[in-house]
# Entry
Amino acid sequence: MQANDLQTTRNNPSVFSRSFRVAAWLGWQIESNWTDPFLFAIYSIIKPLAGAAILVVMYSVITNGNFADPIFTYIYLGNAFYLYVGAVMSGISWAVLDDREHYKTLKYMYVAPINIPAYLIGRGVAKFLVGSISVFITIVFGVLFLHVDVDPAAIIWPLFIISMAIGVVMLAMMGLILAGVSLLIVNHVWFIGDAVAGALFLFSGAIFPLEVLPVWLQPLGYINPITYWLELLRRAMVGSVAEAFPTFQNLSNQQLLGILIGLTIIFGIIARFLFRYCEHVARERGLIDMLTNY
Amino acid sequence: MSNNPPSLPQVLSPQNGAQPLGVDRLHKNIGWKLYLQTVVARAYPRIIGQQREKSWLFFDILLPLLSVCAYVFVYQAIDAPEDYIGFVVVGGAMIAFWMNVLWSMSSQLYWEKEQGNLALFIITPTSMMAILLGMALGGLLATTLRALVIIILGSLFFHVQYAVSSFAQLFAVFILTMIALYGLGMMAASLYLLLSREAWHISSLAQEPVYLFSGFYFPIKNFGFWISAFASFIPLTLGLDAMRQLVFESGPSLGFLTVEVEIIILFILSVVFLFAARLMLAHMEKLAIREGRLTENRR
# Structure
């Protein structure tokens, strides 16, 4: 065996594919087999619905239940799709912690003939699937009970599918960046995925248009790829709602897609190099099998 | 002829009448002194750990503050009255206590079991209640500091106006809320003694619904009487409602019950939860020992 065979970030499609597939299966088992399917379904529904209900009640209290206003659909859809951000980012970065601190298997992963980034992204698939169920239920609930203005016949499906696919890749790259950072930090790392997703909530235009932010904070929203992704999803699902807000009125769908693709490529490059750097430092410092019990 | 050095039998073997090394100098506390010593010992790592690891400034203050800001901007986007921004800031600060109770109190015994410490706790000649109390006090002090920073920064950033009507009542509400809340945490900790992998998921599940029903971001009165009454079993619900009534001008008009009634209910909850925690802990500990779950590790 050559030393190169142990290089975990090598570009071998079959190794990549195998690592991804097995990790996805493993992640699903870990996520779902702690209880029976019924309780798991309840768990997957209650959490996102409660999160959405907070915004619904906030909105309802102030507007006396005027759900017909476009801002409500804007907030509701943005919040629903944002569930993917926490799910994918924390799903990938969490795998580092889970394997290192909980199952104590990360070191074995590193000596196995697998592609580690592919393995970590695969581990995020389970949370992506659970997140998809949550997003679907949240939107259906909104359409049925809260007058969220989504008509399946009016959805621009090609735009929706393309935007969703690019967005998931972009989120996976952001998750990989966090996974790299997770390799290096010790304490407070358990919540890093959720914490970063929570922080980006502010700068993504998910639940309010970017114009509401102070002027000096708005640039952070414009360099955040999640902002463009959510705007594209809104345009695909309810074009009239997206048009009601001035943030990206001057940009066409193609231009927004171009920006999203560009930012995804940039984040992909950053993720690749940052993860390799963090991995290298972690090996140098002996952090791969670190057990903090924190 | 012995191979041991001359002093060794005196250290290891008391059969010859020798005392183990240092026994005559070792003072052991018993009774309330031991209880107090245990409380301090368990609280110590919670407080000192925070000082040693400065990254909490980023993870426990800055990131939650950004989430609070997001909810404030939602209110600004829909032109809510100014006091609602203050509601979010205060609610966002109080979330720190719920997170602490949920992740560092309720599920703590589960983590201790996972790490192998729980059996050590059980075999030490001290009270498990003292251990939980120490955990609660340490967590409470550390979390109060975080909550204060969030309130100060949030208030400065969003120019929140406070109009405190009674500092004495405010103090009483806060203290009673914390006693009841951490009592609830101690009660839940005993339940977690029996849990395995599901502990993490149950804690995770208890986050958003409690944010919703305790009214962290809006007055609980909007839910109507029965839902608010049911939600009042979580001490933060009434605590937050009373605090908002006491510190905001529009608070009294948006309160669920009067502050006096809420103080009485919080007092009752404090007594009930602490008493129930003691009973449940004793019961669950016996049950866990009988069923062999104290050292169980089902990953």
